[in-house]
Amino acid sequence: MQLRRLDPLAKASPYQRLLKCPVKSVSIAEDQYERVRERRPELIVQQGEASVVGFPYRDYLELHYGFPDIESFRGSFVDLVERCAAASGKAEAPRGILLSFRDRPNRTLAEYYFWSLALDEGGQWVEMSWVAVPEQPEPGVTIAETFIVREATDKDRDVIAEIEAEVTGLPRLSEAGVGSIYENARWLRLVTDRQGAPVALLSLRQEPAGWGVIEHALIRPAVIDQLREPLLRWTCAWLRNNGGRRIRKRVSFDDSAEIALLRSLGFAAGETGVDYTRPVEASEVKQQMEERKGTGTIIKFGDWR
C-alpha cells in the first residue's frame, strides 16, 4: 500500500487558488477574474503558486495578489507587480495603479515593498455589511416623492462620466473607463430630479452566497443631504427583492455621515483597508522616486528602513 498526500485544491480553479492563498489582497469577483483571463491574460502574472492580477476598471489598473507564504511574497512581489504594470499602460489606465490593500496582518511587511514600488498611501476604508437583510416591499421608481430612478442606457455615457468626475474629483473617465462601469454592473441606474436632470449614479452587482454589493452610489453634492438616506433605503429594498439576502458597501473612513446611516439601518463594520496608488508608466514612476529622494534620506538595515 502506498500513501500519498491529497491536494485539497487539486481541482480548484485559478481563482479559487488565489482566494486560498494565505498572503493575499483580493477583492475581484470570479466573473471579473475570468474576463481578465479571457481578454487580457498577460495581466495575470504568475510564478509558481504566486500571482498578481491587473484588473482594468474606471481608468485604473486595480491590483490583486495572492502568495502561498511570506517568503514567496518577499522574493517575487515587486517583480510580479512590475511585470503586470508593464503589460498595461497609460492608455488603458490613465488614473494609474490602484491597490486596495486588505492584508492587515502583513501590512508592515507589505509597506516596505510598496515603498520600493512607489505606491503612495491614500484613503482608508471600511466594508459595511448587513448579513441578514429582512424581507422588504419591492420599491417603485420614485424616491422621496421628488426623484425618479431609471435604468441607464448606452446614451447616458456622458452623464455617467460627468457625475463620476464631479463626485470623485478625479479626471473625467475615458470611453473605456465608462464602458467598464457598464460591464461590471449587474444593475446600473440613474436618479433624476423632477426636471429630468440626472443627480445620482447607482451601480450594483451580485456575488455568490446571496450577496448584493453596492459598488457605487454617487450623488451630486447639491442634493446629497436630500437623497443620501432615501437612495440607500431604496437600494437595500431593491437588492433584497433581487436575491440580496446580504448587502455590502465600502465606505471611506472620512465619511462619518454615511457610516452612521449604514449603522442605523443594520449594517456593521467589517474588513478595513487602505488604498495605495502610483502611475502605471515606468517613466512617471522614476520621476516620482526621484522626487522622494529629494524629500528625505532612507537608511536600510536588512529588511528595515
Description:
This protein is α+β, with helices and mostly antiparallel strands and 305 residues long. Helix content is 34%, strand content 30%. Strands 1, 2, 3, 4, 5, 6, 7, 8, 9, 10, 11, 12 and 13 form a 13-stranded mixed sheet that branches. The C terminus is likely disordered.
Would you spell out the secondary-structure blueprint of this structure?
Layout: H1 14-20, E1 23-25, H2 30-39, E2 44-47, E3 50-57, E4 60-67, H3 70-86, E5 96-101, H4 107-116, E6 120-130, E7 142-143, E8 147-151, H5 157-168, H6 175-184, E9 187-192, E10 198-207, E11 211-219, H7 224-240, E12 246-252, H8 256-265, E13 268-278, H9 282-293
Parallel strand pairs: 4-5, 11-12
Antiparallel strand pairs: 1-4, 2-3, 3-4, 5-13, 6-12, 6-13, 7-8, 8-9, 9-10, 10-11
Uncertain regions spanning at least 5 consecutive residues: 297-305
Counted by DSSP, the helix tally is 9
Let me know the number of strands: 13
What is the fourth-level CATH superfamily of the largest domain? Gcn5-related N-acetyltransferase (GNAT)
Topology as a string of helices (H) and strands (E): HEHEEEHEHEEEHHEEEHEHEH
State the CATH class of the largest domain. Alpha Beta
What would the CATH topology of the largest domain be?
Aminopeptidase
β-sheet strand percentage: 25-35%
| Radius of gyration from CA coordinates | 21 Å
Work out the helicity level. 25-40%
